[in-house]
Amino acid sequence: MATDVSVVRVFTDARGNFGNPLGIVAAGAVEERDRQRFAAELGFSETVFVECTASGTASATIYTPAAELPFAGHPTVGLAWWLREQGHPVTTLTVPAAQLNIRYDGEHTWVRARADWAPQVSFRQVHDAAEVSATDPGAYDSGHHYIWAWTDEENGALRSRMFAPVMGIAEDEATGSAAVRLTGELGRGLNIVQGAGSELRTTIDDDGWVELGGRTAADASISV
Q: Which of 53, 74, 84, 129 has a 20 to 30 Å separation from 196 between CA atoms?
């Protein structure tokens, strides 16, 4: 029996271009023991399995092609946007790491998180955006590597790419969890252009809480 998968692109630019594809599946459609295999077959950098638990709330588990994650940025932002499009806007979204606060601000969806919920990442700051663009993904065969450079340091703007072969992702188009962790390390809000042109925004408060936000667009659903 085919399983329906909704597909969205998370962290698009203002025209709806770019963004990181996300697969969204009803939790009841795939047994928990089969979810890792299912995510690997889909091949998206992340797939979420969601259950709407009550008005204004939902819960989800998150899988890359190679591992389950307690928290990730692009799946939670994209899922929260999709839930609103389905007529079920949420103020809280529960994932294995924690209960996340969600807010909607025009075309942006925001998730509130702690930097230490995100996977450990090896950050490498380089000289400029051209050096980021010239990075060869083939140079990385393990771990999580985030290559970045300021494009306008005064205004918190930077260019980045992310390579995560340990998660089965040669290059990730837009990595919300890495944005959250880098925001925590730098202690300032960021305007990030990642991958081919995806756009991520972050803020940070005095208590170290990071908000991650961006735009999402729907793609055609598929059946697997």
A: 84
Measured CA to CA, the distance from residue 110 to residue 108 in angstroms comes to 6
Pair 147, 67 in one domain: no
Beta bridge partners of residue 174, listed in sequence order: none
Residues 106 and 170 in one domain: no
pLDDT tens-digit readout, 53-63: 889 999 999 99
* Overall number of domains in the chain: 2
pLDDT band (50, 70, 90) for residue 155: very high
Q: How many Å apart are CA 40 and CA 95, to the nearest integer?
A: 20
Burial label, 54 (beta-carbon count in 10 A; 0-12, 13-18, 19+): exposed
One domain, residues 66 and 133:
no
Which range marks the domain in which residue 82 is found? Answer: 4-112+213-223
Amino acid identity of residue 178, one-letter, is A
pTM of structure:
0.96
Mean pLDDT in residue range 3-10? 98
